[in-house]
């Protein structure tokens, strides 16, 4: 067996013990007497140094190793003489497992690359410091999210990826079909005959698991989903993906204030977790990606998030004296420049914006007393804008039906959704956290394409 570098550095092995580690070469330095091999296995940020005596039979070959060669090193764990690391390995054997064919053309050679360059090598970029750190932080955040909900009594529900409903009503769904696009079956009126399709009707990739989530919350009280969602949004921005992961809790017997509180508690919980578990990676982001990410997380893990009404936000934006690309007036959907002004310049921390105009929000949001706004909430974070969108849901069937008709939806298509309001309806609500936006926020990475292993964006679905 061999040991993970994370365990070695955490002191789980005693000095003097013989250990084996397996990993990939980061750097090689040598003089006639010794070679120093830095080896990383991805279990943590830091590599470990192996010291190699020129008496080893394959010493010459070892000194010729290059970045990314794979090796197996066995030796004694010793306290490090040099500064920086506590331990190193005094090698007894070094097995060379895999060489790099042509070190001069190896695309991830040890120099700094731009993130754009690395995107072209999605299969090799996890080997870099940056993408290794992103992968570990992303993992830490997902585990923490599951832990948060598990500890708070939520049931994780699997909602379907293939669906017929456009939850957000934005018409941004990818079609799922087995029809031959070059020879579509037609009805007499010329329309495509979806009776002939696999599901006997039109089907799409889901944009959100919410509506399905509501059904389980109406029986199990507190549930959440965590899975991929899809949007055929043709927006080439640093915060949009065509395939992204969403976390969607849904809570029975809850109003908007309850939902906002869960969002705040969840975010603080995961900020704390990443500070506790991944300080090695966070320090890298702080140093090389965005100054201040660690301090920001430390502050936020204990801060109280500001809550603000949409109507007040419009007022603040109008009085800001800022020249926005899109002018603001009551009723408009906020664009990212507005969101960022509020979070970055006005408050300087995440804010929870509430009670949006009904006309810019989805059909399922609960109508407020004023008849103009709905019980919606978004969490806006500095640097990225909206990371969470949620609401209290309309639990009154008559109001729901009116809303659906207003928005051109046929209540008949939503029979199952209406049933939840007909049989023991309860006030309830939830939210959706855009997981990549959270990872981008926590790491300071500027683009969501660099916090998901294989980004899917317009005109790009390689790998
Ligand atoms: O605000 P959205 O559209 O809300 C919903 O889908 C609700 N059904 C959620 C719910 O209440 N259960 O999306 C939720 C979040 C956004 O705040 C954003 O963080 C993220 O999903 N998001 C995207 N992330 C990456 N790429 C995209 N194209 C995204 N679209 C939304
Ligand atoms: Mg939204």
TrEMBL record:
Keywords, A to Z, come to: Aminoacyl-tRNA synthetase, ATP-binding, Cytoplasm, Ligase, Nucleotide-binding, Protein biosynthesis
EC class: ligase
Q: Where is the Aminoacyl-transfer RNA synthetases class-II family profile domain?
A: 136-453
Show the SUPFAM superfamilies listed in the entry: Class II aaRS and biotin synthetases, Nucleic acid-binding proteins
Self-association and partners: Homodimer.
What is this protein called in UniProt?
A: Asparagine--tRNA ligase
Name its GO BP terms in alphabetical order: asparaginyl-tRNA aminoacylation
InterPro entries (alphabetical): Aa-tRNA-synt_II, aa-tRNA-synth_II, aa-tRNA-synth_II/BPL/LPL, Asn-tRNA-ligase, Asp/Asn-tRNA-synth_IIb, NA-bd_OB-fold, NA-bd_OB_tRNA
The keyword Ligase belongs to this UniProt entry's keyword annotation: yes
> EC number(s) per UniProt?
6.1.1.22
Q: Which organism is it from?
A: Saccharobesus litoralis
Q: Does NADP appear among the keywords? A: no
Output a single Gene Ontology CC term carried by this record.
cytoplasm
Among CDD domains, the record links this protein to:
AsxRS_core, EcAsnRS_like_N
Location of the protein in the cell: Cytoplasm
| Record-level Gene Ontology MF annotations | asparagine-tRNA ligase activity; ATP binding; nucleic acid binding
Pfam families in UniProt: tRNA-synt_2, tRNA_anti-codon
- HAMAP family noted in UniProt: Asn_tRNA_synth
């Amino acid at each position: 067996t061999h040991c993970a570098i994370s365990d070695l550095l955490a002191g789980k092995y005693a000095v003097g013990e013989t250990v084996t580690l397996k990993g990939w070469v980061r750097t090689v330095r040598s003089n006639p007497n010794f070679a120093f091999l830095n080896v990383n296995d991805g279990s943590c940020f830091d590599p470990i140094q192996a010291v190699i005596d020129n008496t080893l039979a394959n010493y010459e070959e070892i000194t010729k190793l290059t970045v990314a060669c794979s090796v197996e090193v066995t030796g004694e764990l010793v306290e490090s003489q040099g500064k920086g690391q506590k331990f190193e390995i005094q090698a007894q054997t070094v097995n060379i497992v895999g060489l790099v064919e042509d070190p001069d053309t190896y695309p991830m050679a040890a120099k700094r690359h731009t993130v754009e360059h690395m995107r072209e090598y999605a299969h090799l970029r996890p080997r870099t410091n940056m993408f290794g750190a992103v992968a570990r932080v992303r993992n830490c955040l997902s585990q923490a999210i599951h832990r948060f909900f598990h500890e708070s009594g939520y049931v994780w529900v699997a909602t379907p990826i293939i669906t017929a409903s456009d939850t957000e009503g934005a018409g941004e769904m990818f079609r799922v079909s087995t029809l031959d696009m070059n020879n579509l079956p037609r009805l007499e009126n010329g329309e495509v005959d979806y009776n002939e399709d696999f599901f006997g009707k039109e089907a799409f990739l889901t944009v959100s698991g919410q509506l399905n989530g509501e059904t389980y919350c109406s029986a199990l009280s507190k549930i959440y989903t965590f899975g991929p969602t899809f949007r055929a949004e043709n927006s080439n921005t640093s915060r949009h993906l065509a395939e992204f992961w969403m976390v969607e809790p849904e809570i029975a017997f809850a109003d908007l204030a309850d939902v906002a509180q869960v969002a705040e508690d969840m975010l603080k919980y995961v900020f704390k977790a990443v500070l506790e578990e991944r300080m090695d990676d966070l320090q890298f982001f702080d140093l090389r990606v965005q100054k201040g990410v660690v301090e920001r997380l430390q502050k936020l893990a204990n801060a109280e998030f500001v809550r603000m009404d949409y109507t007040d936000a419009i007022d603040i934006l109008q009085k800001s004296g800022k020249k926005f690309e899109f002018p603001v007036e009551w009723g408009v959907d906020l664009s990212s420049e507005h969101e960022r002004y509020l979070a970055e310049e006005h408050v300087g921390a995440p804010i929870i914006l509430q009670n949006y105009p009904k006309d810019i929000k989805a059909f399922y949001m609960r109508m407020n007393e004023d008849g103009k706004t709905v019980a919606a909430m978004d969490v806006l974070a500095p640097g990225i804008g909206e990371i969470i969108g949620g609401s209290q849901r309309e639990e009154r069937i008559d109001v729901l039906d009116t809303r659906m008709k207003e928005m051109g939806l046929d209540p008949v298509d939503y029979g199952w959704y209406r049933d939840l309001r007909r049989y023991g309806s309860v006030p309830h609500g939830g939210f959706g956290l855009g997981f990549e936006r959270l990872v981008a926020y926590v790491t300071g990475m500027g683009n969501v394409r660099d916090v998901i292993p294989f980004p899917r964006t317009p005109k790009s679905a390689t790998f």
